[in-house]
Amino acid sequence: MPVEPLSRTEIESRLAELPGWTLDGDRLTRAYRLDSHIAAAAMVVHVARVQDELDHHSDLTLGYHTVSLSVHTHSAGGAVTEKDLELARRVEDLAPAHGAH
Ligand SMILES: C[C@H](O)[C@H](O)[C@H]1CNC2=NC(N)=NC(=O)C2=N1
C-alpha cells in the first residue's frame, strides 16, 4: 500500500506527542544521550531490530554516548509519512529501558 506524504501542519501537530523529535528539512530527527558507549550500542541494535520488523529504516548513528536518528520515507519521494511517525513512536517506547534521554 502506498504511503502518502504528510503536510507540514500535520507533522508539526503530531510531533506534540513525540517530545524531542523535530522536523529538520524533510526528515524527522532525534538524538538521545546515554550513560555509556556500550549502552548506546545496545540501543542501536534494539532500534535496528524494530526497523527490520517495521521494514522501515532510519539513518542511525552511534556516537560516544549518543544515538541519533534521521528518517523519511524513500518510497514517498523522501517525504515524512505515517511510517516515520510510527518508527519514532516505537523508538520512544524502547528508549527508557536503555536509559536514553
Ligand atoms: C523493499 C523494502 O520494503 C523497502 O525498500 C523499504 C525498506 N525500508 C525503508 N525505509 C525507509 N525509510 N523508507 C522506505 O521507503 C523504505 N522502504
Automatic annotation (TrEMBL):
<keyword id="KW-0456">Lyase</keyword>
<dbReference type="Pfam" id="PF01329">
    <property type="entry name" value="Pterin_4a"/>
</dbReference>
<dbReference type="InterPro" id="IPR001533">
    <property type="entry name" value="Pterin_deHydtase"/>
</dbReference>
<dbReference type="InterPro" id="IPR036428">
    <property type="entry name" value="PCD_sf"/>
</dbReference>
<protein>
    <recommendedName>
        <fullName>Putative pterin-4-alpha-carbinolamine dehydratase</fullName>
        <ecNumber>4.2.1.96</ecNumber>
    </recommendedName>
</protein>
<comment type="similarity">
    <text>Belongs to the pterin-4-alpha-carbinolamine dehydratase family.</text>
</comment>
<dbReference type="GO" id="GO:0008124">
    <property type="term" value="F:4-alpha-hydroxytetrahydrobiopterin dehydratase activity"/>
</dbReference>
